[in-house]
Design goal:
Radius of gyration: 30 Å
Helix content: 25-40%
Length: about 900
């Protein structure tokens, strides 16, 4: 056979995703994983994704990646205003959350996408803690000395009181809303404003050609913001979550109840001081961002000239902490408004009307203490005339997003819940003077995020991808205020804050669940269970019929039989391979291996590619037809708590910040091993039936990835030939069937990729075998028909679990007939140079596949998928410790899923109908 030309290869793999990992530039950290269709120009193909879109503008802050929000109930006028505001060029720092939150919600419920799967090994949660991170108020002496040094340096910070900071934030808010570059101040005016009021001028000339340029100002601000051991480093996940605690947390909400890594602020002095330094950090970052936006907009309009050397210098000096401060500045300028009012116009005895009203509270940064000089490097003075409030600009939008979240999760009694939310929102907009709420007895517990007690009992010797986050809920606490204000940073924080706000506004739920929450675990409430996607139980139960997923949370009708309402933590071990491959050893750093081990040409030389080197991967082909299976889920079991030595609620000691001196009691969140029970009935070809019961322990913290969608090439013609044992076993009629034929047509697979298909019933009988033992049973000619045996492979690379044959399929809305482009003439051929016309309707597509044009329709049907069989196979993977791809027919072909497994270095593909 003649070698395939480049043009023929491109036609052969049209519509096949290709997997990459490429660096975005210097000083940007780990490479960026991506999926592309380099040989396709049709938007219907290039826009295919393996994850869902963000469904509400209120959740847009979850990612720093550019994205389009698919609003379920769009407000056209508001959307038009936002679109107009976005037309201006903006500066986007090349620093984003890891894993990318867009990819954390795969098309399959409880799964992630390709990008997130690779970034889990380099996630932000794995970063080492910031020096001095352990305290809000009791700072390390290094931080104290650094702040003193910066305030006394000749080119450091000027003295700023709280009044000056807030006044400048008001001015920056107005400046940010300007729509035209011509309305902005000249760079000389910005220079004078910066160096006469905020910073000392540079001690040496930074730009001899234009010493007052925006570039000079940017360099000076970056130098201050990049100073170590001085500012809060929001590259750490916990600080992103606790941002609202510094702004809205009361003194008694800063305490901790255990020996976790975060200690309490010593007094109101410490809290006020940290709040001051946070606002100063926001001010400097907003000054920097406004200047970067001005340069970006000027470059876009052709009136600014950015030298490459300046770009390189900025990327080098602006470390991760600076770039995350820019994310904070953007979130502040877009969502927060600082309001100034005269003191005499406020009545001190007026109280807020509703918990949402406490969002906009008076910002009094001043405090009186005779020992203040011993605790602070900077005196803060109260302005005699004005008082300031920080207000959310989009509270209505955030409340609508909260109601959307509740509906998606099928929250109990959602109709009355939505009504209560609306009432609170109206109370917020009445303009009632606001004040700091009094603490409630329920808030006398720690209101912070940190490692759970269960995690402290067996601290792993190596970093773990698992997080255990506890928080104390408070009906008027900073968690709800953080969400409703919209002041949130990219990453997992939004998922935690959404659930916290949902619970804090449901009095019945708070009463039945208690004030302590484990936001990486789960809870039972009102006959349903709710699980974080950070918990393996949630990722497994998500495959069941009737489950729902929204913004990092799973709801299910499955509840453990022995437990009532309450929070639980799940005992689970790391997958050994995952624990070994994190940070610098993560798969993502091996860019060449990722692309090589997923290449459409396998290990072939691109100049020597033969048609005989490819097969069409088969499924549903067995010498002896497998039995028909009926799988019935029985129960979710949570066994005796791992920490059952404590059998009664613990008593908390009184703390200096408690409202009363009496100790409070609260139930402890227990840690349980989890397992699922199933009943499996099988019937062989002779009609004999057998019933067995299986229990799968959810012992390993496995992840599932949605195999990326693909579109079969319309250029390829497949034929029946005596020389092709693969094609002999493929039914080209499009009707499918059991036995020795099956309806499988997709992209070709190179002989480099060896795989072992195994039916789920066969896998259950070999349950005790390891994955390596199963793959070692790979026979070259028996299970993988090919014209040319793959050399040098003692075993298969990938295990393909057949969850299609012999199972009752879900009803489909449309049957797609055989495409007229499929031929039955001779071996493997490629059609002419001209691509075929784009099909007008789904009825002209290749059998067994869903067209790219039906992508949006498929997304709306996402929650209709699910079965006990899919729960069982996920539970089996969790017991064995197998990370797995989920490849669904009509969405993607088996060949592309096997190649994606090669990119991820995973060894299991679950093929479902």
């Amino acid at each position: 056979m003649a070698n395939l030309s480049d043009s023929e290869i491109e036609k052969l793999f049209s519509g096949a995703p290709q997997y990459f990992a490429r660096s975005e530039g210097h000083f940007t950290g780990a490479p960026h994983p991506s999926v592309a269709f380099p040989w396709d120009e049709q938007l219907e193909i290039r826009d295919l994704t393996d994850h869902t879109q963000i469904e509400d503008r209120a959740w847009s802050c979850v990612t720093a990646w550019p994205h389009i929000t698919r609003d379920v109930q769009p407000d056209r006028s508001s959307a038009q205003k936002m679109t107009a505001a976005k037309r201006r060029a903006h500066f986007y720092p090349r620093c984003r959350e890891r894993p990318g939150m867009l990819s954390m919600a795969g098309l399959e419920k409880g799964s992630v996408g390709y990008q997130a799967a690779l970034e889990l090994g380099v996630s932000d949660a794995l970063q080492e803690e910031q020096f001095g991170f352990e305290s809000l108020g009791s700072k390390s002496h290094v931080i104290v000395e650094q702040r003193q040094r910066m305030l006394t340096s000749r080119d450091g910070l000027r003295h700023l009181d709280d009044h000056a900071i807030l006044e400048q934030l008001i001015k920056n808010g107005r400046r940010y809303s300007e729509t035209h570059l011509g309305d902005r101040r000249e760079s000389s005016e910005l220079y004078n404003e910066l160096f006469l009021h905020i910073l000392h001028p540079p001690v040496k000339v930074l730009d001899h050609q234009n010493p007052y340029s925006l570039s000079v100002q940017i360099q000076s601000i970056v130098k201050v913001l990049a100073a170590p051991n001085m500012w809060i480093d929001f590259s750490h996940v916990e600080w992103r979550i606790r941002l609202g605690q510094l702004l809205w947390g009361a003194e008694n909400e800063i305490e901790t109840a255990d020996n976790a890594s975060v200690r309490s602020a010593n007094s109101a002095v410490d809290l006020h001081e940290e709040r001051y330094w946070l606002l100063l950090q926001i001010l400097l970052a907003s000054e920097l961002l406004i200047r970067l936006d001005a340069i970006t907009e000027g470059d876009e309009l052709g009136i600014e000239n950015i030298r490459p050397a300046e770009v390189h210098k900025f990327e080098k000096e602006a470390n991760r902490s600076v770039k995350w401060s820019l994310h904070l500045a953007r979130a502040w300028l877009e969502n927060i408004e600082v309001v100034r009012a005269e003191k005499q116009n406020l009545k001190e005895d007026e109280k807020p009307a509703g918990w949402l009203a406490t969002l906009t509270k008076r910002m009094s940064l001043s405090h009186e203490s005779s020992n203040h000089s011993n605790h602070s490097n900077h005196h803060i003075f109260n302005h005699p005339t004005y008082v300031y409030a920080i207000k959310g600009r989009h509270c209505e939008r955030q409340v609508d997003g909260l109601k959307h979240f509740a509906r998606q999760l099928k929250w109990p009694d959602i109709d009355s819940y939505a009504a209560r939310i609306s009432e609170n929102c109206r109370a917020l907009t009445t303009g009632t003077p606001l004040d700091t709420p009094l603490a409630t007895p329920a808030s006398n517990r720690s209101s912070y995020f940190g490692d759970s007690k269960a995690d402290h009992r067996s601290k792993p010797s190596k970093p773990s991808r698992r997080r255990q986050i506890q928080a104390a809920l408070n009906p008027s606490g900073w968690l709800s205020k953080s969400y409703v204000s919209g002041l949130m940073l990219p990453g997992e924080a939004l998922c935690h804050l959404l659930m916290s706000t949902l619970l804090e506004n449901d009095q019945e739920a708070m009463a039945r669940l208690g004030p302590m929450a484990n936001l990486c675990g789960g809870f039972m409430y009102s006959g349903k269970s709710f699980w974080s996607t950070a918990c393996v139980v949630g990722r497994v139960l998500a495959a069941g019929k009737g489950s729902a997923e929204c913004m990092g949370w799973i709801s299910s009708d499955i509840t453990p039989q022995t437990l009532g309402d309450g929070w639980v933590n799940i005992e689970v071990d790391n997958v050994p391979e995952d624990a070994e491959h994190i940070n610098k050893k993560a798969r993502l750093w091996f860019k060449a291996a990722i692309e090589k081990e997923s290449n459409v040409l396998g290990d072939a030389d691109s100049s020597m590619v033969l048609p005989a080197d490819f097969i069409i991967p088969y499924e549903n082909v067995y010498a002896q037809p497998p039995p028909t299976l009926w799988i019935d889920f029985q129960s979710l079991n949570l066994y005796a708590p791992v920490d059952s030595v404590h059998t009664t609620p613990t008593e908390e000691a009184a703390t200096p910040f408690s409202e009363t001196s009496q100790a409070t009691k609260a139930p402890e969140i227990r840690t349980y091993p989890a397992a699922l029970d199933f009943k499996v009935t099988s019937e062989d070809q002779l009609g004999n039936t057998e019933e067995k019961e299986y229990t799968f322990a959810l012992a390993r913290d496995v992840y599932f990835v949605t195999a990326h969608p693909c579109v079969p090439s319309q250029h390829v013609k497949i034929m029946k030939s005596a020389t092709s044992p693969t094609i002999q076993q493929v039914d080209l009629s499009g009707h499918g069937g059991g036995g020795k034929t099956a309806s499988v047509i997709g992209h070709p697979l190179h002989k480099y990729y060896t795989y072992l298909p195994i039916h789920l019933s066969d896998l259950l009988t070999k349950r005790d075998l390891t994955l390596e033992a199963l793959l070692a049973n790979y026979p070259t000619t028996g299970h993988r028909p090919s014209l040319t045996p793959a050399p040098g492979h003692a075993g298969a690379r990938v295990l393909v679990i057949d969850c299609i044959t012999g199972f009752q399929p879900l009803p489909q809305e449309h049957e797609i007939p055989l495409s007229p482009t499929v031929s039955r003439t001779s071996s493997l051929s490629i059609s002419g140079d001209e691509p075929p016309a784009t099909p007008a309707t789904p009825t002209t597509t290749t059998p067994g596949f869903e067209t790219a044009g039906k992508k949006m329709h498929h997304e709306t049907r996402r929650r209709q998928f699910g079965s006990d069989m899919e729960v069982l196979v996920r539970a089996l993977c969790a017991e064995k410790g197998w990370n797995a791809l989920i490849s669904r027919r009509r969405r993607g072909c088996l060949a592309c899923a096997i190649r994606e497994a090669g990119a991820l270095a995973w060894k299991v593909v679950i093929r479902v109908d």
